[in-house]
Amino acid sequence: MHAKKLLDVGSCVTIVALLLAGCAPAAAPPAPPKQAPAQAPTVQSKPAAETPVSKPAAHTPSPKAAPMESGRYGGVLTKSTLADPPMLDFSLNTSLMIFEHVGSVYNGLFQYDPLQPDKIINDLVEKWEASPDGKVYIFHLKTGIKWHDGKPFSAEDAAFTLMRNRFDKRSQLKDYAGFIEKAEASGPNTLKVTLEQPWSAFLANLAIGYSYMVPKHVVEAKGDLRTTAIGTGPFKLKDYSSGVRSEVVKNPDYFIKGRPYLDKISVLIVRDDAVRFAAFRTGQIKLTGISNSALSSSQAKFVKAVMSDKVNVLVGPALAFPAFIMQTRNKPWDDVRVRQAANLAIDRMLAIKVLEEGEADVGGIPGVVPRSEWSIPEDELLKMPGIRPSKEADREQAKKLLAEAGFPGGLKTKTLTRADYSSYIYLAQFVQNQLATVGIDLEIDAQEGAVYMERRGRFAYETMSSRATTVMADPDGASKYFGADNIYGFRDEKSFELFSKQRAAMDVAARKKLVIELQKRGLEVVPYVVLSWAYQRVGIWNEVRNYKAPIGNYNNHKFQDVWMAK
To answer: Which of 303, 337, 352, 368 has the CB geometry, 3.0–4.6 Å to 307, for a possible disulfide?
Structure first.
């Protein structure tokens, strides 16, 4: 890899040919109907089962996978994203940009099926079995797999990865490695994992992108993977130019025969939304990014109205939410009354209209997807203080709470946000205006991505205005918000107890009850204000085949089955 100032945020790609007259969107058609977020599969452990069994929620039946088309070899897929990764080591940093650039370099033990994204299937695992008490798992790994540097992949690498994620002091993935007590190689291709207690979402966590396997020998030699990407995946990292692009090329030694189809994937870094959209419209970008670099609602309406013969728009749950995050370690946000006042001040219905163009769901706490079998029912949620549509009573109560907390005349504070994402700036401005209605004067502190992430990591902020995410539709995705090792420094023993208990509950009914209690506790102590739950709209040209939009942002980045029809 040719790395050029990896941590420097460079200028965006300028595509002069795109800045032509007549680029303004035409009138848009009516909005597409909303789709309920798909529920994460419930994986049932069965001794000697060859693949995990997926059990989608009843209200969101899993669609039948389309028959695999005959692939065409060759071609370059050009896709877009809007920023550099702060580093390339996803164990040390949870930025989505890492996966946008090098997700195709790696494999996990399991994966969310690229062609049926709500189903978990095997990846590097051939078969597995679990003990009757659900505490010991034996994974039999596929053989003959090599790292991109030619060295063999083994159970030692898998054990090293899981232990690193769980116990390395620098790891940002401690909660995603959850109850792992020990991971060890019991043979060259046999991995034994012992859990501290049964873990209801263990295999779901092993399937997300954060659980990609990493080479033990490279990490031990270099100390980490900040500037290196070596995996077993269908593509190898060839080049990375800060602020410009990354390129991955076909791995000729990939362990799945006949894959991948593509010769190369080129990921263009285009910060400016209008330039990025113009590049997609003219075909210089064949696939948009996801999350903040996906299409907006109005952009999706435009291309569906005037380009439906050339492009398609894939709509799905982003598992992302604009959020106002308060640093509860410091004054005044250590006072629950101040946090409750902020929660009461923010109008969720207006947030959906202004920030999400009217298309989003109301939700309660981070990590628990709305309108799922795990969430507080929407009709009950809409009656709760802060979330209910009427704001007059909420804001009067907010002013009283601030006065009780010692701020009868209001207070001044700051909010950290990202300068390199316009959506973050708009969010911070919206929150600023909302808090002003109860006397909270919010100063916006906008920083480039690397600075933002570094300050977040050491809790160097009063509040944050963030487009936050959860990694799966299972409530276990709330770990980075309500787990004991959450990444925001939030401390509440009752929340930690509820979260830990739901993780260990193997009975679904008992687990649901605990998750509901966790949500109610989260809305009581309110360290985070969730403004809405967003949808993502991935733009794709018709010649790009066998790609399905993922559920959330951290899955389906490998592109091993994707091919270009021309």
So the answer is: 303
